[in-house]
Amino acid sequence: MAAPGAGRRLMCLLAAALTLSGCGIAPTGVQDEGRPPVISYSPTWVTVYLLRDGRLEPVRFPVGSDSAKSIIDTLFRAGKVPPRPELSTALNSFRHYDTETTRYSAASQRNEPEDNLGYRLNVLITGEGTITRQGLAQITCTIRQNKQESIWSVEVTRLFPGPPQSFKEHTCFEYRDLAADGVRLPP
């Protein structure tokens, strides 16, 4: 004779098995719903200054970011493989090491609270020798072209080999004599 409640247990197990084996949704074949979602990448374009016959020539390049570091990296890369054969660079014997941004302020005015007016970008490079005026112009004008509002001046410092050497602070305006014919340089 069966134990009392055994039938009830059997019915519960059978109901549970039926519940787990089917969810009430009929199976279908594979359906194509189109292309999977993809993040679209649209690069930022920056202007870098290369040299044509020793004069500054603007060239547009795509970059992943418009940060000062990315812009300077692009300038150094562009000079190694210029987009046109007549273009060159004065930066071949140097490498971009890093960039540092500091506040540029007018603390020299008396009786005025210190106003933060903009930024100074220090571009740190490595390499043998002294950077030429054309090389300084390439770096300075490239930054000023792309960061006109925030970067007021550019200082280039060679870290090594040897002791660090600062090439002072510059604006692009002082290199206007190096502009190629028909090229208007940023301030």
From TrEMBL:
Signal peptide annotation: 1-26
Record flagged with keyword Signal: yes
Record keywords, A-Z: Signal
Protein name per its UniProtKB record: GerMN domain-containing protein
